[in-house]
Model the fold of this input.
Amino acid sequence: MRATAAGLLLCACLAAACSRGAHEAPAVSSPAPAAVPPQTASGTVPHGDHNPHHGGVVFMNGDLHFEARLGRDGAYRLYFSDAVREELPAATASGATVTVTQKSAPPDTVTLHIDDSGESWIGQGRRVDDPAATARIAYTAYGKPYFIDVPFPR
Done:
């Protein structure tokens, strides 16, 4: 009985497929649409923008974005923004430093301070001539210390 039912079902499927026109596509169920990240009221997707807004390089620490502008002349700036890259005041962080390591010199640790506008952390260190130099960017935000070591921009 099962064999007969299975045979009938197979014949019905083949008949339905053969009755379709030569150019009709077979019926295929569509996959469920991909989940779309939630948007903010402004329509911006969290973590959707990692473009520098101040000429530096953008990094993330959880939902906190920060942009580091590291100049070969030793001028440093650090900007903070939220998950959708809305600017945050410099006071979002504390204890910001940049430590540059070059082969030909001892590490240069620069303690940054908040600029007059309250928008960024700034500081001035020694000139960076080593093409293989690295920078350690460190700060404390929301009570948690953080650092990242990055190649110094060329």
Notes: Residues 1-43 have pLDDT under 50 and may be disordered.
